[in-house]
Specification:
With 482 residues, this protein is of the alpha/beta class. The chain has 17 helices and 16 strands. The protein has two domains: 2-58 and 319-478, Aspartate Aminotransferase, domain 1, CATH 3.90.1150; 67-315, Type I PLP-dependent aspartate aminotransferase-like (Major domain) (Aspartate Aminotransferase, domain 2), CATH 3.40.640.10. The chain binds ligand F0G.
């Protein structure tokens, strides 16, 4: 929900009361410097006790509702035939319109099963943009990801409202070039994460479906952030302005052959699922489900989470819930723009993204610009962000060559219903300070580099003494305690 103040400013207002809280402390700057050093300058390796605001991700970090928590108390812990599963399947039918539900332990498990069933060695998956895990599973199955985004997708300073759209001419051309029989699926990711949580339109999805079905290729829809995409479509696309969020979701799903999601985001739980109306696809995936995940009525999830997901899927169609993250993201982006800090525009679905290339233009890309900015943000604020740039882009699997990312983003995720306006204002203030002192940020180099998804466990070091000098400059201005 948002309200307009008498001074004209539009602000997000929480449509909930806080009833349970979790304490969080702001560690002094010296502790932050020691903690990031110990974490190998990788924010994934920080501990919660050293973090004030955890904006690493919106995955599994959202506040649940009272009704979700209540549902967890009545979970049916049967290995097979759990009543909790049937509640989830009913929600999937009502919210998405699919008759088959396959629960999995989280989103990447769905990606693994889809790659296993649909990607042949030497085959392709076509995407509006990759996600780290979605690409890794296609490549591990021997396939290649083709990303067919439009011209504006990588422009971080844009007014294009649908940067997540797939380029239709490129789609047509790619299918002709590689042969429809070699394309396992076309995948559309709702609020496309790695380009800044950007939505695609109903109109684009319709056209993608037309082209895919003309060539007999299934359309796979990553619905992890579906309520945010639906919220932004409702707000931005003329043909959907009269529709409710629930209607937008149902209308989108009419174009979809297989939907999967990480339940950790829009649905505010921990788990995932795959859903379809196609009996053949269902059976093919079902065959592998007990091998990798668990029996078909829990799929590796706790039945408590199954219950909470059944409620969370229904709740995310409420505009008060669907907008709870998106409106805070918009406010965060607007405030940073006012301070002159370069961020991805327009505001998207899951996070505020600092454009690290514009933030620290003096850094060469092979010194991991976004990684250095993320480490600097932590030193300056105790806020944990996530590098989404060249560190998050693994080396070429065939040649081992370093692949420079399209974008260098430091992502400040806004977990739904978790942080308040004063947290956002604090973040804006410290980011503005860091931007004024941006020349002090220098690069990083790898000390330990894992072969796959290296951003998770990789350890880095600063190229010189810049981190300690930055902490010193901060202390000189704000004092040792802040
Ligand atoms: N698809 C999208 C669009 C995602 O954002 C994620 C996860 C996944 C699939 C994988 O789901 O984590 O449940 O296995 N995104 C998290 C993030 C990790 O921080 O953006 P998962």
């Amino acid at each position: 929900m948002f309200v307009r103040l008498s001074n004209g400013r539009q602000i997000p207002v929480e449509a909930h009361k806080v009833k349970i809280i979790q304490r969080t402390d702001l560690p002094p700057v010296d502790q932050r410097l020691a903690a990031i050093e110990q974490a190998g300058y990788n924010t994934f390796l920080l501990r919660t006790r050293d973090i004030f605001l955890d904006m690493l991700t919106d995955s599994g970090t959202n506040a649940m509702s009272d009704n979700q928590l209540a549902a967890m108390m009545v979970a049916d812990d049967a290995y097979a035939g759990s009543e909790s599963f049937y509640k989830l399947a009913d929600s999937v039918k009502d919210v998405f319109g699919f008759k088959h539900t396959l629960p999995v332990h989280q989103g990447r498990a769905a990606e693994h099963l889809l790659a296993k069933v649909f990607i042949k060695p030497g085959g392709y998956a076509i995407m509006n943009y990759h996600f780290t895990t979605s690409r890794a599973h296609v490549e591990l199955a021997g396939g290649t990801v083709l990303e067919l985004f439009g011209d504006e997708a990588l422009n971080t300073d844009s007014t294009d409202l649908f940067k997540g759209n797939m380029d239709l001419a490129k789609l047509q051309a790619a299918i002709e070039r590689v042969g429809a029989e070699n394309v396992g699926y076309v995948r559309m990711e709702a609020t496309t994460n790695l380009i800044g949580g950007q939505p695609f339109s109903m109109d684009n999805l319709r056209s993608v479906k037309e082209i895919a079905s003309k060539h007999g290729i299934p359309l796979v829809f990553d619905a992890s952030l579906i309520s945010e995409n639906a919220y932004l479509v409702h707000e931005r696309e003329a043909e959907c302005q009269e529709c409710s969020i629930a209607d937008v979701i149902l209308r989108m799903m009419e174009f979809v052959d297989i939907m999967y999601l990480s339940g950790r985001k829009s649905a505010a739980v921990r788990g995932g699922l795959i859903a379809t109306n196609n009996d053949e696809y269902y059976t093919q995936i079902l065959n592998w489900l007990p091998v990798y995940e668990g029996f078909a009525t829990y799929g590796g999830m706790s039945t408590k989470e199954v219950e909470a997901m059944a409620v969370g899927l229904r709740e995310m169609t409420d505009p008060m819930v669907a907008g709870s993250g998106a409106e805070f993201v918009r406010y965060f982006v607007e405030r940073l723009c006012e301070e002159g800090v370069p961020v991805v525009t327009p505001a998207g679905g899951l996070a505020c993204h600092i454009d690290a290339r514009r933030f620290a233009p003096h850094l060469p890309q092979n010194q991991y610009i976004a990684g250095a900015v993320a480490a600097a943000i932590y030193i300056a604020s105790g806020i944990r962000s996530m590098e989404r740039g060249t560190i998050s882009t693994d080396r070429d699997p065939h040649t081992g060559a370093e692949m420079m990312a399209d974008l260098e983003l430091a992502r400040l995720a806004v977990p739904r219903r978790t942080y308040t306006m004063s947290h956002i204002e604090y973040a804006v203030d410290r980011l503005a300070w860091l931007y004024r002192n941006r020349e002090m940020i220098h690069g990083l180099k790898f000390v330990q580099e894992p072969p796959v998804l290296r951003f998770f466990f990789g350890r880095l070091a600063p190229v010189d003494n810049w981190a300690a000098e930055l902490a010193g400059a901060f202390k000189a201005e704000y004092g040792a305690g802040m």
